[in-house]
Amino acid sequence: MAEGSMRDGLPEGLASVTGFQLSKCGWWLEQRLEEELKPLGIRVRHFLVLAMLSTSETLSQQEMAGYLLLDPTLMVGLIDDLETRGLCERTRDPRDRRRHSVRITEDGRDLHDRARALADEVGADVFGPLSSDELRTVVKAMGRVMEPFWAEQMIRPRRKR
Amino acid sequence: MAEGSMRDGLPEGLASVTGFQLSKCGWWLEQRLEEELKPLGIRVRHFLVLAMLSTSETLSQQEMAGYLLLDPTLMVGLIDDLETRGLCERTRDPRDRRRHSVRITEDGRDLHDRARALADEVGADVFGPLSSDELRTVVKAMGRVMEPFWAEQMIRPRRKR
DNA sequence: TATTGTTATACTCTATAACTATA
DNA sequence: TATAGTTATAGAGTATAACAATA
User: What nucleotide is nearest A77 when CA is compared to C1'?
Assistant: First the structure.
């Protein structure tokens, strides 16, 4: 029996924690998308890699680990998964032969397009209660908030957990 | 070497995934707070429990698990931690003796106040780039977006991972 | 000497199943 | 028979450390 004051369906004291609802919203979005992507045989992280590669000629595994906040060792298996299915390909970077230049393939682009359509559906559903003006404001706000984070992240990477 | 088009310090294809920045913003907030709370000897989840209890007479462990999206078995140790430090107390609910009525103590309230001050600092720092108008819009938007989630959650609980 | 990618291993965290007591 | 809470265990996921190739 939830007594005490409530707000937005939550105990007031919890709803008033700055960022709590935002954190859970992020979690909800990810869970929803994880479910939607199952029929495609990929996880959210696979989709995010394809999303990065879709607008970049090539990226190194370290760069991608930095953007996804994943430990670089996890990128190995992740790219393995995609390469095995012919969704991306690794070549040695001729300018620095330690690096792998990862590039998306045509099949990868096709799967990316399908996955993005699903991601857009989830986004439209979750953010449904917002007017397009409000959604635009939120998206732009997140970009401004996270800009200093990414700038710092690309210099001194932090990882998950 | 990040080639291709960029937006907000990210590859365009990644920045344009609906909710990606929002998810990472939630993660960043949590990491920052986790660090700030270490001197108090608690984790974010402990703070969130105290936050709930601060505005509710009593709550059951199941209710709290539902709000925090944690498996109920995890609440046991969580409440143990707080009770051992005298921050909350368990009593049997006289109307349903299976339930534990969890209540915050005076010491718990004190620690909660200190933790919330830190949470507010983190929030002010992370959301610093936003005007107060924008921040208000974002917070209100999150409340509206998550309302149907909490309504559903309290009926058919889903857990993490 | 430092960095990218790789592999194997250890660790952390969480979920699962089984149990007690209450309903 | 179902539910709240508890416990121990198994499983998933992640980070750590060591290595090869290259800078």
Answer: C6
